What we know:
single chain; mainly alpha; 2 strands
Amino acid sequence: MPELRITLFESRSRRELYAKLVVISVVYGLFWVNPVDLTSALHEMPYYHLWLIALYFAPAYGLFALYGTRDWELYFAIGLLVSLMNDLFFYPVGELMHIVSGINLIEWYKLQLGLDGWAVDFWFEGGIFTFPVWSWLMGLSIYLRIITVILLSELWLRKHQPLSLVKR
Length: 168
């Protein structure tokens, strides 16, 4: 019987490596970042959202350390993908994991997707930069991140230079 072995660093193509990194990023965003964000005692800290942004990009740190800046598009795309998993599935994952309950998901999605206009979703805590995140601003940031992930992913996938992560 042939041995089935799936490894991250033995990808035969950019598309195969990209698919593996997308799966890792989605799982990381859904089942690590969301529970951490839902249960973190850091919410009251003045730098909380800067810490959260750093957490989004954690899957890319090892790749950056090993392979440098050549594939910045990939690193940025997977970090933004993780952030989307947090902003689009924060409460659904919380409900699924029994961390929160009783959330009206339709109302929450209206707020997240910009359909509640000037209603304040939350306050961004970035140290000296603190400001309200209105529903329209949250929605805009989500739509722009989706577009950016798609464009950066396509840019990275179409690069002609060989990637050291891809087996030749």
